[in-house]
Amino acid sequence: MPNWLAEEEARQIGARAVAGVDEAGRGPLAGPVVAAAVVLPEGALNLPFDDSKKLTVKRRNLLYEQIKEMARIGIGQAEPGEIEELNILDATFLAMRRAIEAVGFVDYVLVDGNMPIKNLSLPQRPIVKGDAASFSIAAASIIAKVTRDRLMDQLAKMYPYYGWQRNRGYATKEHLEALRKYGPSPAHRFSFEPIASMIGSEPYCAG
User: Fold this and answer.
1) How far apart are CA 113 and CA 111, in angstroms?
2) What is the C-alpha separation between 44 and 154, in angstroms, rounded?
3) Using CA atoms, how far apart are residues 60 and 16, in angstroms rounded to an integer?
4) Neighbours of 191 (CB within 10 A)
5) pLDDT (tens digit, 9 = 90+) per residue, 135-165?
6) Angle 135-104-108 from CA coordinates, rounded to 5°
7) Largest CA distance in the chain
8) Is the peptide bond before 194 cis (omega within 30 degrees of 0)?
9) What is the strand order of the sheet 72-78 is part of?
10) What is the DSSP-derived secondary structure letter of residue 78?
11) Alpha-helix residue ranges (DSSP H) falling in 159-199
12) CB proximity list for 29: less than 8 A, separation 6 or greater
């Protein structure tokens, strides 16, 4: 379970506002990559947070609402076009910087993963499997995941053939079969395989 150790270590060196940062949606074939930055209140007791991937949908949604009530939250995203222009890693960093900017005052960042956020002019500490180690990162994991799932629900209504309300844009059998039948939509990531091999087909456009 996560704990407060990383946050406490940051405060011991003078940090006043520590943000946990995580992303959702690096791997799918469609939709944006979404990042969240969360500043939890100092002095909070142990919280029922965990890595969002370990939680049921019902539990994630409940914690999402609880986090919104108690914390400062910033959301950032990079759209498929930006992913194509930059590459998925740099687009993820862009979404993270946007989330940090949106959260307001922050003077230290804890980020999930083994790499610092590129082009971020703040002290930061990457933590491998940080969503299982830090309450702030775990909270950001939940916010990013629920936010992206809801965005994919909206996109599923615009482009209904691909089942995104179920697969969230990942390369499931259902999604791949729809891609072969209908081709890619404007919300797909054209540089990702197998879409890159389908570029000769005309993208589907609703309406």
Assistant:
1) 6
2) 34
3) 28
4) 14
5) 999 999 999 999 999 999 999 999 999 999 9
6) 50
7) 57
8) yes
9) 72-78, 33-39, 18-24, 108-112, 124-127
10) E
11) 164-167, 173-182
12) 169, 170, 171, 175, 179, 188, 189, 192, 195
Amino acid at 24: A
Residue 173, classified by CB atoms within 10 Å of its CB into exposed (0-12), middle (13-18) or buried (19+), is exposed
Euclidean distance between CA atoms 122 and 105, whole angstroms:
11
Enter the tokens of residue 86: 């930059």
Question: Token match 């990531």: residue?
Answer: 189
CATH of span 5-157: 3.30.420.10
Identify the three-state secondary structure at position 39. strand
Q: What is the predicted pLDDT for the residue at 198?
A: 85
One-letter amino acid identity for 196?
A
Judged against a pLDDT cut of 60, whether residue 173 lies above it is answered with yes
Q: Does residue 173 contact residue 14 with C-beta atoms inside 8 Å?
A: no
